[in-house]
Amino acid sequence: MAPPGFVESSCRSRIFWMKLNKLLLQGKFFQLEIYDPSSGPVLLDEKLASRCGYVLAEDTWGNPIFRASVLGCHVANEADELFSLTVNIKVSSFSSMRAAVTYTYPMYCSYASWAPREIVCEENYMEVSVKTDVPAVSNDYTVAWMSALPETHNVAYQQWQLMFVSPSGRKRITVSDAVKLGYSFNNTLSRVYLRAPYHSNESDVSVVSGVNMNVITSTSMYRQRWLLLLIDTTVSCPVDGISFTDTTLTWTVPRVIPTLVVQESTFLSKSMVMGVDDQVIVNPEEMNYLLEYNETHIRITIPIGAEGGKLESSISGGVYGVIYCIDLFLEHTWTDAGWQTTKYTVIKSITTPFMPQTPTVITNTVPEERLFNVAFGHFLHDVSLVAITYVNRNETKYTLLLNYTLSVGLERTLYYQSAQVECVIADIEIPEAVGSCDEENLYLTLPTFGLHQYWDLYLGNQILNRHVALTNGYLAATNSTHLILQIPLFAGGLIYEYATQMVP
User: C-alpha 24: how far from its chain's center?
Assistant: First the structure.
C-alpha cells in the first residue's frame, strides 16, 4: 500500500487523473508502469504515452501528474460505462531503480453520458471517439451503389482501414500500419476512436479565427458484403491562442471549428465549462477569472498571480523576475445538424514569459538614531536571504553641494547653476579591541579617535549605554583616543568556559 497522502486520484469527465506528493519523493527516483492483467506491467515512456492516451507531467506546484483517457491502452472497459486502470508506482533511492519499492494503485472511472462525438485535446495527443449506431442495411449488394463511393472499392473485407486527407493527397492505410506511424485506432462496444500525435505527416495546420489548429482529416472504413461503414474521425485541436499583458494571460479557442461542423447555420453552443487542474470552476468571477465568448471565440482571462496558479521566482541573464503557471481546461458542448452533440475538451498548461522585477531598496534610516535601517524587496516566499556583504565597509563618501552664480552679457543677467560633487575615500578603520585581564577584572580597550567615534558598542543585542553599564557593574573610562571598559569577573553578560591544561 502507498503511504498515506502519497497518491491522490480523481475521474474528471472521461480522464483518469492521478497526483503524487512531491514531498514524499524528495531525494528519490520514480517510474510508472501500466499494469495489464493479461500481459503484465508496461513501462510508461514518451512514445507510449502519446499513442496510448497517457500524459506524465508536473502540476504548477511540482507534483508529478499522470492522466489517462478511459479509451487508453490497458484500460479495462465494462460496457462503455465502467473503466479501471492499474498503475505501478516504483520508488527507489537510485537512478538505476535498483531496490525499488513498488506500490500498486488501481483507479476507477464511471462515465455513461457519452456524447455522439467526443474530442479531447491533450498536451501530447488528440483523440476523437464516435458513437457507432449501425441501422439495419439491405442485402441488396449492387455495383451501382458501390460506384457512388469510389474510395471504397479497395477497402479490404472485414478489416478496418483509415483514409487520411492532407495537402499532400489521400492516404489509405491499415490499422496496423497506422500504429507504426504513432496512431491508435480501435473500437469498443458502441464507439470507434482515433488517437493521434500532434504534427504527424498526415496532419495539417489551419488558422481558425486567428488561432492555429492542428487538423487530421480522416475517415474510418469497414466493409463486408452486405455492409459498408464510413465514420468521420476528423479531429482538430488548438496549438496556440495564448497571449499576455503585464497583468493578465488570455487563452483563446475558436468557438466554431469548420472542419468539425458540417452546417454552421445549425451550430448551437450548449455549455461552456472551465476548470483549473482537475476541478471545475463553477463561478469563475469569484476567483477573478473571466470566461466569455462571442460568435467566433471563447476566451479565458486570468489575472497573473490569481488563485489556482503559482507565481515563481526566476533568474534570467542575471536579472531577477517571476513567472506564473496555471493548468486550465475548457469543455465546450455544442450541437449541429450533422453530429447532434459534440463534447470538446481542451487541456492546457500555461506559463507566462519571464517578467523582470527590479527589487527596491527602501531606507528607513533616521539620522538622529545613527543607525542604518534598510529594507530590500519585495520578494515571493521562494526567495530567502543568505548573506549581506558591506561592499564599502572602509570607505566614506563625501558630498559637496555647490551653487554657481554667473553674470552673463552686457546686461549682467544673473545665471544660477547647481552642482554636486562626490568623493569616496577609504578612510574608515574598523575598531580593533584589545583585551586583557587580572585576578578581578576583564579589560577591553577600543580606539575612539577620528571616525571610530561613530561606532557603537553592544552588549548582546543591547547598546552599551550608561544605564546598561551601571546595571551590570561595568566601569568605563575615556580619554582623547581610547575607551577602556572594566568588567568584573562575575558581572552579567559574561560566558564562562572550563579549560584544561595538559601537564607534561
Answer: 19
Contact 372, 365 (CB under 8 A): yes
Q: Which residues of the chain have pLDDT under 50?
A: 135-150, 152-153, 155-157
Per-residue pLDDT tens digits for 312-357: 999 999 999 999 999 999 999 999 987 889 999 999 999 999 999 9
Going by C-alpha positions, the residue among 206, 218, 140 that lies closest to residue 175 is: 218
Residue 432 DSSP one-character state: -
Query: Which tens digit of pLDDT belongs to each residue from 273-308?
Result: 999 999 999 999 999 999 999 999 999 999 999 999
DSSP-derived secondary structure for 450-468: GGGGG---EETTEE--HHH
> In angstroms, what CA-CA distances link 394 with 373, 400, 425?
19, 20, 8
* Cell numbers placing 218: 480522416
| Residues, the chain | 504
At residue 426, what are phi and psi to the nearest 5 degrees? -80, 75
Going across the sheet that includes 248-254, the strands are 242-244, 248-254, 297-303, 290-293
- 1-113 folds as Immunoglobulin-like (2.60.40)
Domain range list for the chain: 1-113, 126-135+142-237, 396-425, 434-488
